[in-house]
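User: Let's play a game. I give you a shape written as tokens, and you guess the letters that built it. Ready? Here's round one.
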């Protein structure tokens, strides 16, 4: 993308969000001391690499849905995954693959699936309310890059648990568990454990869900901890719950994303909300585990390195570790306090300090924001993005919809981020 257009994006973003000299975002552009927006383009359809995942350690094979690439995404071939686990399901049942991870130690691809067994449910209904009591999770395993699957089974914790009560404090039909967005991807740790960050609704009284602030949803978070078995199945255990009272976040904690640091600690960053309480500070929340994900610190506002928290709307975010060991965060940030889910722009990227696990202020860059041309198209949302490292170039690839009018219209963007050597 031409430098002039990159500058236009950044200048438009500053005009849209105002100027506060003390805030790192007020002077952020497409380049910082540590990161650079290398390219940016908008197209009518998503980039072919959107949602893709490497399925080997050396050959740079990629897969997404029913398409595969053997040349690092330059060309793609269609295939039909088998078996088709949706075939023969009763009307109203759903199987929605959300996120996946490739485990190079075992040469296995793991996909986590949001599932609903709700007879007669309208197949076109988006986020139906019944799902907040009936969602459960399934998992699939492949040894050939997703072309064929060994099985599709429920995630159920070992011990005295059942399909109806798959994890502690979950009773399908009264409350549920599910993955919220693309940022909640499985993580294979340095010790070979599989961690799946999960959000769960909370059962209340009289058959209703616990929702103390009366917001859209209220959820807790926990991590399913998996160990591979010889037949390719996974034995699941569970972490303790990570909770946040409605006095601090009206929707609890939502859409966790995970990363492991070089010293073995785990960082979890979560979406919160000030829905119905717009004077409540809208933060990102973080929690840390030093024991492989079994226990977690109480969530606190995520901050810059100097301890200053920043405002962020209620939207997904993603943590990713680069092959160099550096950790990237992609999400929405704003100078002024957010109001519930809005505004979901600018879309920014920043690096995480590996010691404090907070954001490095001089690494912040703006990837995209509201521009003059967007003003006539209604509300802009920059979210639901996919982040991956290009193995050949070392760049981060961020692909996402530029959505308008409450997600009724959209274009598609691809932003590439290059890493600059950190100052010595």
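Assistant: Ready! My guess for every position:
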């Amino acid at each position: 993308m031409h430098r002039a257009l990159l500058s236009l994006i950044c200048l438009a973003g500053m005009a849209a969000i105002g100027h506060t000299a003390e805030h790192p975002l007020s002077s952020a552009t497409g380049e910082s001391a540590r990161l650079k927006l290398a390219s940016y383009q908008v197209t009518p359809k998503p980039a072919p690499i959107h949602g893709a995942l490497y399925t080997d350690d050396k050959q740079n094979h990629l897969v997404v849905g029913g398409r595969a690439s053997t040349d690092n995404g330059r060309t793609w071939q269609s295939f039909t995954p088998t078996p088709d686990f949706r075939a023969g399901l009763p009307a109203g049942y759903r199987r929605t693959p959300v996120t996946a991870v490739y485990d190079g130690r075992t040469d296995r691809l793991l996909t986590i699936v949001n599932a609903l067994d709700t007879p007669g449910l309208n197949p076109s209904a988006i986020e139906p309310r019944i799902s907040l009591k009936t969602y459960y999770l399934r998992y699939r395993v492949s040894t050939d890059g997703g072309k064929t699957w060994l099985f599709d089974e429920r995630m159920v914790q070992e011990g005295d648990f059942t399909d109806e009560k798959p994890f502690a404090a979950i009773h399908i039909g009264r409350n549920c568990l599910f993955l919220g967005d693309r940022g909640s991807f499985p993580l294979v740790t340095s010790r070979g454990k599989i961690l799946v960050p999960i959000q769960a609704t909370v059962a209340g009284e009289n058959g209703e869900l616990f929702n103390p602030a009366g917001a859209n949803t209220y959820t807790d978070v926990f991590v399913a901890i998996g160990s591979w078995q010889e037949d390719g199945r996974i034995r699941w255990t569970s972490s303790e719950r990570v909770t946040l009272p409605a006095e601090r976040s009206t929707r609890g904690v939502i859409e966790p994303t995970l990363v492991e640091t070089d010293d073995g600690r785990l960082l979890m960053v979560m979406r919160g909300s000030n829905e119905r309480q717009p004077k409540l500070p809208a933060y990102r929340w973080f929690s840390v585990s030093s024991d492989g994900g079994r226990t977690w610190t109480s969530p606190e506002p995520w901050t810059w390195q100097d301890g200053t928290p920043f405002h962020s709307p209620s939207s997904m975010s993603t943590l990713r570790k680069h092959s160099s060991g550096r950790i990237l965060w992609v999400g929405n940030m704003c100078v002024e306090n957010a109001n519930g889910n809005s505004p979901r722009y600018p879309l920014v990227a920043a690096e995480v300090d590996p010691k404090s696990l907070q954001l490095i202020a001089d690494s912040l860059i703006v990837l995209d924001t509201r521009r003059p041309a967007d003003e006539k198209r209604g509300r802009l949302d920059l979210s639901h993005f996919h982040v991956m490292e290009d193995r050949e170039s070392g760049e981060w690839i961020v692909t996402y919809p530029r959505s308008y009018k409450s997600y009724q219209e959209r274009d598609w963007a691809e932003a590439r981020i290059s890493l600059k050597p950190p100052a010595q």
